[in-house]
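Data availability (excerpt). The following record was deposited with the supplementary files.
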Amino acid sequence: MFIIDILSGYILPVIYESMVSLVIVLMFLFVFRIKDSNMRILFFFVPLIKPFFVIAEKVDLDPANFPNREIITGIRFPDPNSMINLGSSRAPFYEVISTDMNYLYLLVTVSVVLLILLVRWIILAMFYRHLAYEEKVSHHDVPDIYNIIYDYTSRIKTKIPDVSLTHRNIRSPFIVGILRCTMVISPRLIECLSIEEKETVIHHELSHIKRNDNLTGWFALILRDLLFFNPFAYMAFFLIKNEQEKDCDKLMLRYSGKSAKEIARNILNAILKIKSTAAKTGQYPDPGGIANNFTGSAPLYFFNFKILRNRINLILSTDPSRIYSRPFPRIIMVMFFIILLVLQVVMVIRFDNLIIFLR
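Predicted structure:
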């Protein structure tokens, strides 16, 4: 019965809350035609953050508190008193643990899961750090790469990253680090790309630095991993990463001095070359980069092709002068974000004495 209480009181409500939040966010973005990627990313964080209100909140599932109906729906705000115990009537935590072994089992299970996730994050951070120092190169070693970096960073007013060459089975270049950034790139990729394609690839990665995407990406990754049982958390994470890629393309369109057709052509050629030179079976995963979501397994090629087609169409149809929205509409959208983050769509389902409180 304890397991059923955990499932009905926390696991299912978390999944339900993410699902409802994601649907509402997608409808909101579609109806109001929000194109600003920063605002879209903010809203896609709702399905990742909102479930933690559910986890923190304790809801009374006593059947006597609900009408004799099988399904009840409504809208509510979280109760702060159920998140933070302001009174002294409740027994101390250690007494609850000592009197009910189920809570001890739950505590051990949660602790083990958090430990596994912590080890995963540390290993991932060490993997990226190792790539960042695998083969540091200077301007003297790769002058063409650094010349492109110097030129574009002066235009977008961002910090100049280091450059590290990797000889692993990673073909798509990417940025490592938050405070001190390093561009990791494969020598094979440098050899196979034309100068225009190199510029586009490097401009795209430098745009990630301008946007602080690594910081946002790590935050989204941690939230997604904490909600590892929630499929809608993975969807929200994918949408955030996709918006980051699209906005980097917009930054290139605004600052690179290249036309939309040139950028689109260079991206297509670079992705095709990255895909053709990528090893079929690699020891290490591809962390992303300009070919993000397009170097996956065969069953995903059709889906990835549609993403790439939409990405190219977006580049060709974007007006560089209207990439970002004005301050006042952004303030209004932030207010809507807070409302969507807090407001809960509630559904109570009764099965005899079992109540599933979805909120």
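Summary of structural features: The first strand starts at residue 71 and ends at 76.
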